[in-house]
Amino acid sequence: MADYLYGINPIHEAFQGDGRKPLExxxxxxxxxxxxxxxxxxxKQQRLKINFFERRELxxxxxxxxxxxxxxxxxxxNYVDLAAxxxxxHVSERSAxxxxxxxITDPHNFGxxxxxxxxxxxxxxxVAKDRSCPVTSVVEKAAAGALSHLxxxxxxxxxxxxxxxxxxxxxxxxxAGEAGAQDLFSTNLRGNxxxxxxxxxxxxxPNIRKHCDALLSIPTSGKINSLNASVATGIxxxxxxxxxxx
Length: 246
Fold this sequence. Notes:
Elements: E1 4-6, H1 8-16, E2 22-28, H2 34-45, E3 49-53, H3 55-62, E4 70-74, H4 82-92, E5 97-102, H5 107-120, E6 124-128, H6 137-143, E7 152-155, H7 158-167, E8 171-175, E9 182-183, E10 193-198, H8 206-211, E11 214-217, H9 229-244
Parallel strand pairs: 2-3, 5-6, 5-10, 6-7, 8-10, 8-11, 9-11
Antiparallel strand pairs: 1-4, 2-4
Helix pairs in contact: 1-2, 5-6, 5-9
């Protein structure tokens, strides 16, 4: 089955980024707008094959009607390995800033988290091979083009990966809401660090918690004491950004 990206903004980012290689642009024929025409122009500049279809055919290929009149056929998604991710960090000469996801399975949450990670300047996101939503067109749409610029690493054992990161001098902080966790806003988050986020329902697994250097909680004032995983991740990511920009 072909791997398609849909939506004008994600396709534009795919043309601009260093992610998967575009293979073919499929666009609605006839009644187009300036934004779709701009995609056609970009595809011609990259010497891509361009095919025009009736809207109902694009609906069939996408499996829905939310494609905005354009699909981009791509090469299969390639994860980077941990060694390559760490090598990229060393070459960058920046403080390490990684995000690890332990069991995020909702594609909209996954995509939203990837988008926040890229905007926050993360050098890579690490997911477990058996405990993560795969990269799908829904994920890429929600990520709004982030995967064209953000490295995504897939590992077999997340706890072992945490040990490797700590061995490389990276502090690993898990997001958790239980008593005893440190206040996110009172913790020094400067320097080399990785944030670890758990699943939407159960949070971090016990074994992953044990491999974190510390657990962090986001203070709440309302009667509901938990946040959506993507919202909590965004808050934590940009607290790191805030502290390192001072």
